[in-house]
Amino acid sequence: MFAKERADSRSGTDAFEGSSGRISWDIQLETVFSSTDGVASGTTTFTSATGGFTGQLGNIVSIDARGVYEIKTVTSDTSVVLDGSPASGTALKFKVIESEQVAFEWLRVNAPAEYVASSGTSYKPQSINVTPSEAGGGILVGEVIYAQIKPLQFTFQTGGGSEKIDYSRARQHQYDVAGKDGASFAPDFKSAINVTKTSIEGVTIKSAQFQFKITKSWAPGIPVDSYGTRDELSSHDSEAEGYRFLSTNGDGSAGAGPILYVMGPLTGGGDWHPMVHVAGEIDGQYIADLEGMTPSYNNAPFTILVGGIWMHFLTGELLFEGTDGGMMVDNRFELTYSFSVSRNIETTDEESWRSVGEIVVDEKRGWDLLWVYSEEDEDATTHTQTRTPRAVYVEKVYRSTDFSDLRLEE
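The structure corresponding to this sequence follows.
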């Protein structure tokens, strides 16, 4: 992690036109330390009696007359493993230099989170590139690509829903030949609706249904020159600086997701680094995540803030139904996210409780399923066959996922 502020030769070269633009900086990598007692043995091991290698993982060792290498492993304060094998020698003059990854990190942290052009148009970061400067001397050009991002758009509707119910919330009245609500010859069906001799038919009623859609504009993803598994990465070691390779299995470990690698500026080839990108950019992994989340409900309380309006949903109340959209003419993506709301039955809110006959349900997540087991019974007064609820079950039928993965807050 780059730990100190840099005001070094940062130039505000900017050019914003249409849907995208860029800001560039000159960045001077620093020498961490240097020495004249380096020892190389023709292998990847490099040592120095003076030491100082602790904490230098990923940094660069520049050895006079031997070349430039990346530190892959810090064995001890006096010994490291490099990404190449310098020719044997002793009393070698060398220096340890910050890697360009430090420049990536500095740009990621320090680049403006928003750029407002003179026209008043707002742009947000899309990606970061670091390349050697023509000036040489270890100076890099750091470039942050910005894209014009529209604010979130929000539409909603309430009502228009329907629901089939088998039991009422409460019986209001009953009538028979004896009149209204008196000593009755009507069997007690325990609030069941449209009961026949063999079943409970229930009824379909209007229900409150809150549905909404959020449309978000995304910057286009980073172009890829080629792709394959992590093992195939080395076959592209001779490619030019800036070449991008998508490893479909990430770092090669079990279950790893795709990683986009970019060729760095070091001589000798094979100078691969994970591509650094920032919020607001869409890629194939994100679309795959959307597919995997459709449909699902929120696995934790979730708050959405759109245009000063906030909506809060308890765990299980918000169902993500899916996304539609595509790429626009300016290479931006516009995606519309669809949601439906079903409020929870909470133990702390008696108004939300649900009665099923004489059974009271006081806890249910909104998008879990409630079903009733009933048995044939006989009404003691009328000797009529009825069906009496014996048990109520609440079942999880949708997956629950982390809605922060939708990245709607960016």
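The longest helix spans residues 100-110.
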